Amino acid sequence: MIMVSACLAGLNCRYDGGNNGLEEIEKLVKEGKAVLVCPEQLGGMPTPRIPCEIVHGDGAEVLERKGKVINRNGEDMTIYFIKGAEETLKIAKLYGIRTAILKARSPSCGKKCIYDGTFSKKLKKGEGVTAALLKKHGILLLDEEDFREYME
Asked: For position 113, what pLDDT does the model report?
């Protein structure tokens, strides 16, 4: 069993109410090989929601309470992202998850780069909050850009 970001399976849980559905991910779910999560919804945020980005570091710094997640209106949403990451980890432990396919560049799920906190579409190196927590617990992180090479 693997864990996947729900938006990649076609669920309308993105910040704008849309999804990033991919046929290969939907097939894994239909075959019973994947469990779906949306950390931001698990953290208590609605859909749609105001876009959020990490300032002062990345997800690891947010977990250490050194960084913050803010929305485009400047409101601190950090607590929702931490709660969502913790709930996602609980699900991973319940299912014995060892691999997760997450949404690239997301402030929750990005595994190698995330938006830089300026809401200008610029990227910086680093992980989202959930990605950082899952990685810390030994879960292999993939995203929609590289999962195919691991699934063959």
From this structure: 97
